[in-house]
Design goal:
The chain has 244 residues and is α/β, with parallel strands linked by helices. The radius of gyration is 17 Å and the shape is globular.
Length: 244
């Protein structure tokens, strides 16, 4: 299994980075975890064919995590000429929020015939969801987006990848990431508390308790980016590929 950070940035593009978007390649092809507003651009830059993506998992309904989907779907219809079904998996209210975003950005696009099937699946806290060759268990995150926000525990090709999404510290992160082969964790700031987000000073002493085999920090603000080379833990960059 291979994972590529197509976007490792925060909502503000700090450091010139793309919004959050992870591409996981497995025995069946590929799927995305989050699809921030700049994700289609990132896919073009790193040579990812949108037609190879069979599913998109969304942690929460902020634009830097799901705002690329209206562009992805527009591309699928007009340029990629997609024919295969697409699974869209996210929190309660996902379908309605996505259609509202489509209408705000490209009026009429939410009701246009696509030429392929959209299969929406709704995540329920701590309920394992299977389908499309992987399984995901969502855990409620401490973040606000007008709908549930999740950290995800993803099972794929015999490996476990956990992703914090956006969240303040919560013991549910331990459940989401304990013993994972890879724990991808947002770390928005170094020591300054930010509502709904993690800082490194809070996170670092708790990582041993989580016990993930590998930890990569992402979603960093300018302060974190300036310190990343001095950190004990790995940090993500746009384009980084991890093999598990």
């Amino acid at each position: 299994m291979e994972l590529q950070f197509l976007g490792s940035g925060d909502a503000f593009g700090s450091g010139g980075r793309f919004n959050t978007c992870l591409c996981i390649r497995d025995a069946r092809g590929a799927f995305l975890v989050d699809c921030g507003a700049s994700s289609l651009i990132a896919m073009r830059k790193f040579g990812v064919d949108p037609n190879t993506i069979r599913a998109v998992l969304i942690t929460h309904l902020h634009g830097d995590h799901f705002g690329g989907l209206p562009f992805f779907l527009l591309d699928a219809r007009h340029l990629a000429k997609r024919a295969r079904p697409l699974f869209l998996i996210g929190p309660a209210g996902f379908e309605a929020r996505l259609k509202a975003a489509q209408e705000a950005l490209f009026p009429g696009s939410s009701c246009t015939m696509l030429g392929f099937t959209l299969d929406y699946r709704e995540l329920t806290p701590e309920m394992r969801c299977t389908g499309s060759g992987f399984a995901v268990t969502p855990f409620l995150a401490e973040h606000e987006a007008g709908a549930p926000c999740f950290s995800l525990r993803i099972e794929c090709d015999g490996k476990i990848v956990s992703y914090s999404g956006d969240t303040e510290w919560t013991e549910r992160l331990v459940l989401a990431a304990q013993g994972a082969d890879l724990f991808i964790c947002e770390c928005s700031s170094y020591e300054r508390p930010l509502k709904g987000h993690l800082d490194y000073v809070t996170l670092q002493p708790r990582l041993d308790h989580i016990g993930a085999k590998r930890v990569i920090l992402t979603h960093m603000n300018p302060d974190m980016l300036a310190r990343r080379l001095a950190l004990v833990h790995e940090t993500a960059a746009d384009g980084t590929i991890v093999t598990l």
